[in-house]
Design brief:
This protein has 106 residues and is an alpha+beta fold. The protein contains two helices and three strands. The radius of gyration is 20 Å and the shape is rod-shaped.
């Protein structure tokens, strides 16, 4: 095994991962629940950037229902970001070929 080649591959992978992380920060996912009553938009850094609530959903006598919808939308957006990250980072790491080493996303 050529250590110089291995180090070069590692540096290339690190640079590609940093680039991918920067690109992910600019991407967003949208999750809607209850037929669009609550919509959560999250960026690739798991930051909630927008939360829309249909005014017809707001019932002062049933705040718990609205809270549940918000939680569901935010959690679904988080799952979508996780899937996006896995797909993007898998591509960033795909070029790294080290015999006997299995990395996530490869």
């Amino acid at each position: 095994m050529d250590i110089q080649k291995l180090l070069k591959q590692a540096q290339q992978m690190q640079a590609k991962m940093q680039q991918t992380q920067a690109e992910l920060a600019g991407k967003t996912v949208t999750a809607e629940v209850a037929g669009g009553q609550v919509t959560a938009v999250m960026n690739g850094k798991h930051e909630l950037v927008s939360l829309r609530i249909n005014p017809a959903t707001v019932d002062p006598d049933d705040v718990e229902f609205l809270q549940d919808l918000i939680l569901a939308a935010v959690n679904e957006a988080g799952r979508q970001v996780d899937a996006l990250i896995e797909a993007e980072m898998g591509g960033a790491m795909g070029g790294m070929n080290i015999p006997g080493l299995k990395l996530p996303g490869m």
